[in-house]
Amino acid sequence: MTYEQCVAKSDELRAKFNRSFSLSEKADIVQMYSEVLGKTFRPTTCQQCYHDALIEICLYLRKNKTMKKSCKYRLRAGFIISCPTFHNGEIYSNSNLTDEIAEEYIKMFPSRAKYVEKTQISGSEPLKPVGGVVTKGKARKPVRRKISEK
Q: How far is it, in rounded angstroms, from Cα 108 to Cα 16?
């Protein structure tokens, strides 16, 4: 979706703001939330979250006049990059992280690569840790041994 399409769709949805959104309108809001803000939408039970998301989308588009640049990397929940030896102590979070910064950080600190995840590529695969151990398959069941009587 382009910037112009998002602006037109958000204006159309704002006109219907005082009523409940249909399923297709909710799907549009979820898609725009992801594309415009680069964040994952988390619905709640009260349905007010769709109105809040639309407001957030409209404000971001009005203020920045563009959509958020997509980044191939995200920091894991609760983690920020704040290191005095990396970019003179500049603090990075998911809101200002770029591909170049993430890749440089992984190269400089390979032991901390587990805190950086690759984002989904067109929704085909889940987030994967860049560093650390990734296990495949099911967890093993514990082995039960018989105790022989003597």
A: 50
Query: Residue 75: what are its φ and ψ, rounded to 5°?
Result: -85, 145
Helix, strand or coil for residue 11? helix
pLDDT tens digits along 107-144 = 999 999 889 988 765 444 444 556 554 444 455 555 56
Burial class (CB in 10 A: 0-12, 13-18, 19+), 86: middle
Which has more confidence, 106 or 138?
106
The single-letter DSSP state of residue 36 is I
What is d(CA 132, CA 115) in angstroms, rounded to the nearest whole number? 9
Domain boundaries along the sequence of the chain: 3-64, 73-129
Cβ 83 vs Cβ 64: under 8 Å: no
Q: Encode pLDDT of 48-101 as tens digits.
A: 999 999 999 999 999 988 887 777 888 888 889 998 999 999 999 888 888 899
Q: What is the DSSP letter of 64?
A: H
Q: Taking the model in full, what pTM does it have? A: 0.58
Strands 81-82 and 73-75: unpaired
